[in-house]
Amino acid sequence: MKAVRLTLICHGLTDAQRLGRMACPDDALLALPSAAELMADYTQVLSAPERRTLDTAGVLGDQVMIEPALADADPGRWQGLTLKQLQREQPDALAQWLSDPYSAPHGGESLAQLSERVAAWLAAFNSPGSTLAVTHPQVIRAVLGQLLDCPLAALQRIDVLPLAKLQLSFNGQWRVRLL
């Protein structure tokens, strides 16, 4: 059985992250990462469908496959709003969303729904060789939660910075490698 290696990398820095604003699918990167920041011996490159992930993956060339399961959580009506604005205008809804992983007061996807989507993708992932997957902080948190069997509420305590990497390997079971 050939080992499966999967490295998840968070997209590059966006204005939304810098400003604490809920992301929009067409958010652009503030600066493109260099190929040296991303390169390794990968047999395939996957990307979530949003512009920021595609732009990050695009540094590696044009052989990027879009993987819908790696998409960011849908923020519903909150798309494009800043956290400061939500604190001011919808403090109870924001507090509920931050404390209850099953809630979706914005009408989008809850953290629990995102985690289920990611768990299903990870359970079916079996590409031998080394794969680089460009995705989002919430998706990387959900993967960590699945592998470590963490309570969903604990995922909000994990910071995932731009270009942060999470390296996984599978040989009968998933393992997390700290770099």
Automatic annotation (TrEMBL):
Its EC number is 3.1.3.-. It comes from the Bacteria. It comes from Pseudomonas shirazensis. The lineage of its organism: Bacteria, Pseudomonadati, Pseudomonadota, Gammaproteobacteria, Pseudomonadales. GO terms for molecular function: hydrolase activity. Keywords: Hydrolase. Pfam families: His_Phos_1. The keyword Magnesium does not apply. The keyword Hydrolase applies. SUPFAM superfamilies: Phosphoglycerate mutase-like. This is Histidine phosphatase family protein.
